[in-house]
Specification:
A 4-stranded parallel β-sheet has the order 3-2-1-4, covered by helices on one side. A two-stranded antiparallel ribbon has the order 5-6. Helix 4 links the parallel strand 1 and strand 2. It folds into 2 domains: about 180 residues, 3-Layer(aba) Sandwich (Rossmann fold); about 70 residues, no CATH class. It has 14 helices and 6 strands. The longest helix has 20 residues. It is globular, with a radius of gyration of 20 Å. With about 280 residues, it is α/β, with parallel strands linked by helices.
Length: about 280
Amino acid sequence: MDGEELTEQETALYDRQIRVWGADAQRRLSKAHILVSGLKGTVAEFCKNVVLAGVGSLTLIDDRPVTEEALSANFLIAPDENNLSGKSIAELCCDSLKDFNPMVRVSVEKGDLSSFGGDFYDKFDVVVVSCCSQTAKKKRDETIECQLQYTSFEEAIAVPWKSLPRRMSKLYYAMRVIERFEEAEGRNPGQTSIEDLPKVLKLRKEVCEAHSLNESSIPDLLLERLVTGTREFPPVCAIVGGILGQEVIKAISGKGDPVKNFFFFDAMEGKGTIEDISEPNNGS
């Protein structure tokens, strides 16, 4: 991302943030290219944040039509039926984001992650993925150039549970169970309901036995919340989307180290937790 200096227009527009993190960091941001797949409420907040920060370009992938759920959480989609006809979520978000900062190039790419090869991803400095299965996350497990070496997503979730800290967030274990259930049932992320709870609890028992973990580490109530509370809550989207934007800006600008390597936010407790999950004795 080394190269051209900031233009006079960029320097004037981003003057206040340049005073915070410096011209070199802003230059890196202005030359960065970000790819986003899956525009749910949290990711919409993230997109707004990085566009306002002045990234070079933002490419959106989400061919889904607009639903009532999307309207309730994604503030980038105006609830105007005349504007919704025939447009995908990505196209509607693109229209809104261009108004936030005309200096950022915002575009739409049609298709899904599985339809693109490695050359496509090489064009981007950061790839943000949402609304996809655990398997899809593994396939898109790309390395971002930064000062720290990070354990990949696939390596992290392969770490034996008995090797994890005793005070590991219960959300980590619960999310792994939910992901296993969704894949076993052929569901898309978030396609669960209270009727699925008995099967999820049975799977929890199997997973805990396989990992020699006490079932109390994944409470029934937590799993019930996860299978029923699949709708996004806009205030939580704003919090998590803000944190995601902050960490991506760190990775691009070199100002601070991004979170290493999992972040969980519990809306019931109003608390976020960072967990560093990597192979034992692995310095990465």
